Amino acid sequence: MSSLQTGHIGLNVTDLDRSIAFYRALFSLEVTRESHGTGRRFAFLAKEGKLVLTLWEQSTGSFPTGSPGLHHLSFQVDTLEEVRAAERTLQELGAAFQYEGVVPHSEGSASGGIFFTDPDGVRLEVYTPAGVAETGAEAPVAEAPTCGFF
User: Most buried pick, 12, 17, 23, 96, via CB within 10 A?
Assistant: First the structure.
């Protein structure tokens, strides 16, 4: 392999319409394909023509953070203001946050972001690689990366 990058993310969801609304509001994604067939509900969400997220309505309950598998999904944006805009949107959506406000990835780190869950309890992060140290925010976890233990 001469080049490797992450492709789209596929998530099982309990309520397709609710999840479409959540991810569209948060990331301004467009639905490029959708099926509401019995037992086969799904949606493809893209940004600027590139597939980012696929949602599959085929689960019940909430995301089991204590089981092996996905720890969290992280989305990088360019600026601290974009992180704060995402935070405002999430507050309007009633999302559950792990920490209050934008926090650094570690003490004194330039990078950092917000940590929250989607409607099914999947742990998510929106972060920026620079600008967080200037806010004076303290890292919520001193001995480990902030994103590792939420």
Answer: 23
Q: What is the CATH number of domain 1-59?
A: 3.10.180.10
Give the largest Cα separation in the chain, rounded. Answer: 51
Task: Show the tokens assigned to 21.
Answer: 């609304």
SS3 at position 56? strand
Name residues whose C-beta falls within 8 Å of residue 120's C-beta, 6 or more positions apart in sequence. Answer: 11, 12, 13, 14, 19, 59, 62, 63
CATH superfamily of 72-150: 2,3-Dihydroxybiphenyl 1,2-Dioxygenase, domain 1 (3.10.180.10)
**pTM for this one?**
0.93
**97 vs 114: CA distance, rounded Å:** 8
Tens of pLDDT, residues 8-37: 999 999 999 999 999 999 999 999 999 988
Give the span between the Cα atoms of 40 and 21, in whole angstroms: 19
